[in-house]
Records
---
Amino acid sequence: MNGYIRLILLIASDAVLINVSIIIAYLLRFEGFTSASPYLQDYFFISPIVITIHLFCFYCLKLYNRVWAYASTGELFAIVQSVSLGSLAVIAMTYMMESLLPRSIVISSWAFIVLTVGGSRLVWRVMLDRKKGNGRHGKRTLIIGAGDAGVMVARELKNHDSGLLPVGFIDDDKNKQKFSVLSLPILGTRERILSVVKRYNIQNIIIAMPSAGAEAIKEIFTICSQTNLDVKILPGVYQILNGRVSVNSLRPVAIEDLLQREPVKVDLDEIAGYLKGETVLVTGAGGSIGSELCRQVAGFAPQKLVLLGHGENSIHKIWLELEARFPGLPLGIEIADIRDKAKIDAIWQAYRPGVVFHAAAHKHVPLMEFHPDEAVKTNVFGTQNLMEAADRTGTKIFVSISTDKAVNPSSVMGATKRLSELVVQNMDRNSNTRFAAVRFGNVLGSRGSVVPIFESQIKKGGPVTVTHPDMKRYFMTIPEAVQLVIQTGAMAGGGEIFILDMGEPVKIVDLARDMIKLSGLEPDHDIKIKFTGVRPGEKLFEELLTAEEGSTATNHKRIFVARPCLAEVSALDKQLLLLARNTTQVEADDVFDTLAAILPQFKSYRNKVEAV
């Protein structure tokens, strides 16, 4: 409808309704038309003025600028405000003009005007809702959760032609049972999902519980997966807080939703304080952790962001992404090997970074067992090159990414990362730079990690290979791990090994089963799970602390600090020189022996084989 025609019709309708409301007030006040007739004649004389005052108040409070098809309590409140202002203005007029309009009539007519004007908007919305509903088709959809999120999703589905037709809700709140929301019934608790799906011919399920814990989501998803229907989830409580819920917000349930862990919260003000205006350098910037570090750091307005990496393709990719997302951010792009001491020194002299996040490393456990010299050169001496350059150029904060495999290491990768932690602590004792390390477990979706491997195997029809039925690992998503890493940079005083709370460890075989279910398949029926045996250097269980370290809490409940073992670093320089000589040799056994001499906790699988 044309905007001007719509405005004229609304004004004309309101003028009639105001007039009728005041006449009703007269009839009630004087108990019938006969008694009220003389007074109504006086009113008809001033009615144009009264109606004009009300309509003017409606216009000033923008009652005609609202879309009444989506009217709610906010629109009702606006009507009450407008009518109240109009009534007060009419009362003021009766005082000034000595009008014959009784003030009692103005007061009693207030309620009638609210009812008639508000009722007209309600009728308009009901008519539009019925028009939308007539002939509507779509997949019959069950919404899990009748809270704010579920109601917003249901309203979105009802107001738009999304191809989904909401049928009802499932909610565990006993007080909501047998009630309805938005004319949709609450059909029971989660125990009734299967029977409700069958009884109401449900074709699609939406989980709208963004504040629920992962354990509850996992239980509900397990029930829903038995229906073989398409299951989608509304992620992120922030969308509810901001009121941003749409059909596009829905996505398939992901493995991240099933992790038994609270969502990460960071102190954005604290982070912004130490990154804003600084030159920030990220090593391994093309990798899974490094690229996410670049994305998140870029959002805190650094003076310059320097991307350092060895692989040109991955650096090129994140470079193009950052240029598109942050067009005003100055970027430095450096292709370099951190083992190249001269090149690293030149880069630090050119940029003089204030903050460094060191994510470059060799990380694949079985592969490094066959190339221990390369693991040492990159993870130990490459890290040392970076820290020495940072010390010489006055870098303020240097955060090195470590791993839970550094605790009581059974692999070369873990042993070299433990050595890099010791180098961090030793370097911090004699430098103005605040050096710190962050230790955490596996991240979901990183390149070469178990999740993309499982995804590939499932797409091929299986089998999904798991090394051992009792194998457990800590897991965290890449974005939340990076958030906590950046948070530790704000907390670093120097020499700490920060430990991220990874929640409960997850059995790899359970992870495999969950991923198969997420693909709409049945474990051990559609996709087989095959146990292949523990690989070289692997442990069944990873640890986050050694027995000697212990931990102390920080002001962030998800971050802890390991107590430093200073006795381990007393002769570190001498031992590193010995290790440096051995890495120039071809024989891998020499590197294993030197690592074992430096780290008494290092229990290589080779030693176990020899003992047998």
Note: Residues 269-443+475-501+549-606 form a domain with the Rossmann fold fold (CATH 3.40.50.720).
---
Amino acid sequence: MSEVHKIAVIGLPQSGKSSLTKALQGLAKPHDIEFVEVHHPDELHGHTYDVVLQVVDATRLEESLMLTPHIIDEQEKIVLAIGRYDLLQKTDHSLDIPKLEQLIGVPTCRVSVRLNYGLPECLEIIERTIHKPASTAHPIYHLRDQADEDTYRAYVHGILTETLTHAKDDKHQTRLERIDKVLTNPWLGFPIMMAILYFVFWCTFTLGAYPQEWIEMGIDALSDTLRGVMEPTWWSSLLIDGVLAGVGAVLAFLPNIIILFFFISLMEDSGYMAREAYIMDAIMHRVGLHGRSFVPMLMGFGCNVPAIMAARDIQNPKDRVLTMLMVPFMSCSARLPVYMLFVDTFFEHHKALVMISLYAIGICLSVLFALIMKRTRWFRQDDDDTVNELPEFRVPKARNTVAHIWERVADYLQKICTVILWASVIIWALEYFPTQDLNDLEHSYLASIGQFVAPLMEPLGFDWKMSVCLITGLPAKEAIVSTLAILYGGDISAAGFTPLTAYSFMLFVLLYFPCVATIATLHREAGKQWAWFTVVHSLFLAWFISFIVYQIGSLFI
């Protein structure tokens, strides 16, 4: 039986098996060659591959080629495959492939599955490379030993200067390139970004209001039906006042979650998220970071846990840790139901503006936090990294959009069936016992806990019930909504909240650490000391900001 040669393919999107890998595998069936996709050079470590096929994006040449020395650190035999070359040509740019191959010293070819171009030639080059001894005479093999990343960046820039021919003037630009110039304009880019975010939140509230109302009506109808057919026992109270009230309050915001992540998926898949990072690059540089640190922060709007893990790709260790510490300032989707509940109730005519203000405050405070931390001995350094290239705009694929939405919905439903369900049961039990009377909350176990922390929270305008809600939000912020529903019977408008206390409460939810899972991830990725630092400083900052807002607001309201 002949030996099977394993080829690692790197540089492809991480969503599913790529069409390029499938096409090459189909051609290679009679040749005893197996293609294996990897997504980071670290995944090559400890594995033996006959050849590594690096797929280079023709529209992001510099960024793609910067990965090459890291690949050679793990595997010596590599082949470059220039993909999406037709998109480069549409802009009247061209790349001298033979000269690129000569200067970089690595076998290079062009491939396109969509145009059915270059695949047999690519396979032929791979087969030759398998049986050819690895050479260390090429410049890239010597440069990989350079400790300074900037040396290789300068080398890549020099290669592209000699091999990449640019369009001569703006008349050759495509319509998308002209749009791109407007979206990334130093003066127009930020206002456009804020307008897009306003539109997204407006749609989230306006379009989500109808299905949200239907779900709430269904839950109320089910509760009334159960009350009519069940005896008033502790079991029926647990089911109706605990599980159904708590879980139903969080479930009602599912349509809003779907709508929000539909738009986020469109922005990610179209390439606009990368433009947002580019726009923020100048701001990030003012605090000693760069636009790449903003990408994990953007991911934090979905969930802080994968966002912290995404910061692994930042090369500088100090920037990597600092970015991880900035992520919890981002309003993750777990906080969204809390915001929506209060915004719907107290800010009916300014919903989108209030939502944007919360997200903007989180971003601004994260930047201020980084500015302060960069002046401490732990993070002080010079940094001149920049965001150099942007992916081209592309039409989002329906399959990817549905997959992204389902991922978030599945996570939301999983939390409802686990953390929220158990939190609802525990809150109900603390409220029901020892009096076994939900109308006598003042003598319940829950009241004892709330009244213990109430003096600390009173300067923020919070009573003991609000304080308890913040405690139940430690495992998951969605639990705050279920606790509010159980304690206040689903009507917070008549529960002592005012627009001022509501906003102060939302700020506290925004600023204290998102959940236990986030702290556990920080512990694993950045170390125990930074995990505890985040717990302490976020609680202090949440209390301080809420205190300032409530006390100053009380002078005018």
Note: Residues 384-388 have pLDDT under 50 and may be disordered.
